[in-house]
Amino acid sequence: MPVGCWAADLLISDGSVVCAEALWDHVTMDDQELGFKAGDVIEVMDATNREWWWGRVADGEGWFPASFVRLRVNQDEPADEEALRARDGEAEDGGAEAQSSKDQMRTNVINEILSTERDYIKHLRDICEGYIRQCRKRADMFSEEQLRTIFGNIEDIYQCQKAFVKALEQRFNRERPHLSELGACFLEHQADFQIYSEYCNNHPNACVELSRLTKLSKYVYFFEACRLLQKMIDISLDGFLLTPVQKICKYPLQLAELLKYTPPQHRDFKDVEAALHAMRNVAQLINERKRRLENIDKIAQWQSSIEDWEGEDILVRSSELIYSGELTRVTQPQAKSQQRMFFLFDHQLIYCKKDLLRRDVLYYKGRVDMDGQEVVDLEDGKDRDLHVSVKNAFRLLCGTTGESHLLCARKSEQKQRWLKAFAKEREQVRLDQETGFSITELQRKQAMLNASKQQATGKPKGTYDPCFCSALSRPYYLARQKHPVLPTSLPQQQVLVLAEPKRKPSTFWHSISRLAPFRK
Question: What count of other Cβ atoms lies within 10 Å of the Cβ of residue 217?
Fold first, then answer.
């Protein structure tokens, strides 16, 4: 049982009120789940399950993923800022005793940061030594390319985190912990945290490859054997591989907590403030990349639903739906008006025609390369090029070819939303170039393969899902990890033997006697 789960369960069993703070929004997927927003305070009522807890917020109760929250460091802290200010006022009146209480709160936060870092280092070491090292012994089961796909650059992360936790230990004031200066440590290592971006980008590929391998019982038994030999906690490999993704997103929460109990006159105040800003930027960038990579499957599925698709796959150049809606397209030479559905992605604008009878069926009609376009806002009145009266119109003008597209919205508000969307598209392209974000060929091919499989068993081709646009803005959900269930008839020795090369049976069998009994 993870430390957080164990601590919560222990406090609840003692009759204490246990509170947790939401890290992300949780949109309920069924009536038994508890919905909340990031920042909400949830009363944890049952934490016996490792992955899903039962809690209460406002007037609702239900299950929620434990990975979406963090336990409060000080369980007795007020639930709102007003109460916090009132307590701070009382503390000022209390003098030395109140200051001592504040110092203790800062000490608690610092201890939590150090404790979670030590636990995290152990998780990383277990992955590198318990899984990767054992996998490399089995060249008959894994290639180096497979290992890179499954584990990404986690060995590099392990080395960086070892250096980071060592630096934290050096900054820790053992005699007066509340005087420890950890903010500067985060600032010194902020560039190192950029390597998490590569790991998070690769994580969907790892999930796909791991899912493929664990369809074979040989690999299921092997991974379970690795866990047992390393004496790791009872979490499946996909759960361990999710840990770095969760960790990088928790740093801003910890630093925000540290800043709350760091007085302005403290030598660490400015550094903690700067570190919080820096780590929020890192986490925001990684979260955004994670969301976009999760969305490429939806984009591929959307493309597969469009009739008469022509040209390259949309994922060759694009990975983000910026905006969509209906516009009137005015074409030359007779200034003919056409109602079309437009979908603005990064780098390109796709337009489709609705079926006259089945409005949920779309036919591909063309695309506009946005990289060479200038968006021109037009005044209401007669267009001088097409000699036709227009309202709520704008023009896309290609500077190199001179080709133009005249588009009209129904309302002025819709036109303004489109103009803002075009500006957002250019900003998105600029940011992607600065940060180096891109979709790999493997990710694109896998997304298109998934889409073709779903199309074969799902909706008939040409059926457009109207929820597509809203689906791309939904938060990324952490999957409920399913631990492998092994047959009870299978001897533990038979499971464990998979984790060692056959050429060393004597050493292996000697180690079995020291292992804990196999848990079903």
Answer: 12
**Whole-angstrom Cα distance, residue 261 to residue 207?**
39
Question: Who contacts 195 (Cβ-Cβ below 8 Å, separation ≥6)?
Answer: 153, 156, 157, 160
Instruction: List, as one string, the DSSP characters of 6-24.
Output: HHHHHHHHTT--EEEEESS
- How many Å apart are CA 27 and CA 33, to the nearest integer? 9
Q: Out of 1.10.340.30, 3.90.1750.10, 2.30.30.40, 3.40.50.150, select the CATH number for domain 3-71.
A: 2.30.30.40
User: Does domain 304-471 match CATH 3.30.980.10?
Assistant: no
Burial of 119-135, coded b for 16+ CB within 10 Å and e otherwise, reads: ebbebbebbbebbbebb
Name the one residue in this structure whose structure tokens are 């700067």.
Answer: 274
Cα-based angle 190, 195, 200 (whole degrees, multiple of 5): 120
Long-range pairs, 86-91, Cβ under 8 A, ≥24: none
Task: Indicate the CATH number for domain 96-294.
Answer: 1.20.900.10
pLDDT value, residue 113:
92
For residue 340, the cross-strand partners are 327
Instruction: Please give the pLDDT value at position 265.
Output: 92
The answer to whether residues 212 and 206 touch, using CB atoms and an 8 Å cutoff, is no
The whole-angstrom separation of Cα 173 and Cα 499 is 43
Query: 340 pLDDT band (50/70/90 cuts)?
Result: very high
174-189 pLDDT, tens digit each: 999 888 989 999 999 9
Alpha carbon distance 247, 411 (integer Å): 46
Q: What secondary structure does DSSP assign to 400-434, as a single string?
A: TT--EEEEE-SSHHHHHHHHHHHHHHHHHHHHHHH
Compute, in degrees rounded to 10, the torsion defined by CA atoms 241, 247, 249, 250.
150
Phi/psi-derived region of residue 482, left when phi > 0, alpha when psi is between -120 and 50, beta in every other case: beta
> Amino acid identity of 9?
D
Q: Where are the domains of the chain?
A: 3-71, 96-294, 304-471
Contacts 24+ apart (CB under 8 A), 308-316: 308/363, 308/364, 309/364, 310/364, 311/367, 313/444, 313/448, 314/345, 314/348, 314/350, 315/439, 315/444, 315/447, 315/448, 316/444
Please write the tens of the pLDDT for every residue from 366-422: 999 999 899 999 988 887 777 788 899 999 998 788 888 999 999 999 999 999 999
Residue among 16, 11, 257 nearest 116 (CA): 257
Cα 501 to the chain's mean position, in Å? 36
Tell me the pairing of strands 18-22 and 41-46.
antiparallel
Collapsing DSSP to helix, strand or coil, 102 comes out as: helix
CA distance readout (Å), 26 to 33, 69, 305, 461, 480? 9, 10, 29, 32, 14
Query: Global pTM?
Result: 0.57
Number of residues that this document lists for the chain: 520
